[in-house]
Amino acid sequence: MTSPSGPPTSPNSPGPSGTSSPSGTSGPSGRIRVGSAPDSWGVWFPDDPHQVPWQRFLDEVAAAGYEWIELGPYGYLPTDPARLTDEVRARDLSVSAGTVFTSLHRGPAVWDATWEHVSRVAALTQAMGAAHLVVIPSFWRDDRTAELIEPSELTDAQWAELTGGTERLAHRVREEYGLELVVHPHADTHIDTEEHVTRFLEETDRDLVRLCLDTGHYAYCGGDSVQLLRTYGERIGYLHLKQVDPDVLAEVVRNGTPFGPAVAQGVMCEPPRGVPALEPVLDAARELDVDLFAIVEQDMYPCDPDQPLPIATRTRRLLRSCGA
Question: pLDDT tens digits for 73-84?
Answer without folding.
Answer: 999 999 999 999
